[in-house]
Amino acid sequence: MNPNIKTESAIKLNEASLARLASDVRIPQYDRHQIKNGIIHIGVGGFHRAHQALYLDDYLHQHPNSDWGICGVGLLEFDQRMRDALKSQDCLYTLVERSPESDNARVIGSITQYLFAPENRQAVIDTLAHPQCRIVTLTITEGGYYYIEGSGEFDVNHPTIQHDLQHPDQPIGVYGFLTAALDQRRQQGVAPFTVLSCDNLQGNGNIVKKMLTAFAELHDPELGRWIADHVAFPNCMVDRITPATTAADIEMVRNQFGIEDAFPVVAEPFLQWVIEDNFCAGRPELEAVGVQFTNDVHPYEMMKIRLLNASHLLIGYLGTLMGYSYVHEAMADQLIRQAVEQLMEEVTSTLQPVPGIDLDTYKKTLIERFANPKIRDQLPRLCFNSSAKLPKWVLSPLREKLQQGESIDYLSLMIASWFRYLNGLDDQKKPISIDDPMADALTQCAQAGGSDPSSLFGLSELFGDLPQSSRFVEAVTHHLRNLYDLGAKETLIGLLQVHQ
């Protein structure tokens, strides 16, 4: 580490400057110009760059001149910042792994090309349709799959879907691009690529198969059948806590490592990727760099989604209501920490045995990861797009607990905390910014209903038939009234005393 490096002497990151970087910064030792991009990744953000691209960077060090480089794709106008940063840096960027003990930096070289779809949609379709593309990976957020939680069906009426059905040559959504490219491949006699979702959805491969096939069938029934029969959709589980890049991160990379990087990424040391071994056009041997391949990802998915992701939501809502800004601050509050431990205990009975994993150790490790003060993960990131996350991560285990006749104290507390959070004011009467595609409808229901959750329960696309369970409704109503009348702190004190 170089704590005394001056900002003025920082080196602008690009291929030409790699050899001038400090010796403690690991750089690509392979010739990036000899790599072919067999993988196209849609949705290049912090997580992809700290996770999949890192694994591929490790792989390329072992297999130079490989066919498994990455071409990144941004579909949204929002992706313009990523395009500009990567373009100015030859697609290189700095990854800093931060533990309480140390910071370690390396430059990742596995992304060698980046396409910004709003600039040239046909270029993206042609690249996807090229025989060189053998795997398409996705991090498009839970809301990017157009999956109606209440029914499990495809959201065919979504404006993005309707646009792409009516303008197949000028798509804006992921299914429009994939369908156009697969149609081109089919017509040209080129075998299809594998579609690998890397988002936090239980059965993510099954979901993307169902949604993409439904879209393609509306475009052309024969194409839909061809996709269903020939495209592989492996399920996978991904894990690494990766906060959004901040101005402070950019400054840290500049000051500690002497690198001028427009868009570095910071992550915790922990890293995990479990993939169903189901590929239709080959794959890199990523087991050599720590990826676990299995015939059944389901137990790993459930473990991660129900223990880590669900806990993140509870931390986000309670921490925000109690006035905290960061995850590690919230976890330093013993009330929140104990509530998270109790939530994990509550959902454990819904998990299957996980090969090679001791669940008690895993839960203990999660608490330590959440408490890492170096990561500075912001609570709004955890709460972002909750209308897509909460139904997928929380309602399934809740239904199972109801069927088992077991306690739902902390699962129902989480839903009550979300409802209270949606009111838009924390316990100190400070405003909360609700960042959610359904924000208008959600906040209107929350503010109109107050401590009565019935208007929010009326959103059937989120809750389906769950509100028919009187035990569920009574539990959420009880917690919600306490959150309004007593505040989050006293609500937790009362609930935790019951469980002691």
From TrEMBL:
It catalyses: D-mannitol 1-phosphate + NAD(+) = beta-D-fructose 6-phosphate + NADH + H(+). Keywords: NAD, Oxidoreductase. PROSITE patterns: MANNITOL_DHGENASE (PS00974). One of its GO terms (biological process) is mannitol metabolic process. Residues 38-287 form the Mannitol dehydrogenase N-terminal domain. The keyword Oxidoreductase applies. The keyword NAD applies. Its EC number is 1.1.1.17. GO terms for molecular function: mannitol dehydrogenase activity; mannitol-1-phosphate 5-dehydrogenase activity. Residues 296-483 form the Mannitol dehydrogenase C-terminal domain. Belongs to the mannitol dehydrogenase family. UxuB subfamily. This is Mannitol-1-phosphate 5-dehydrogenase. The lineage of its organism: Bacteria, Bacillati, Cyanobacteriota, Cyanophyceae, Leptolyngbyales.
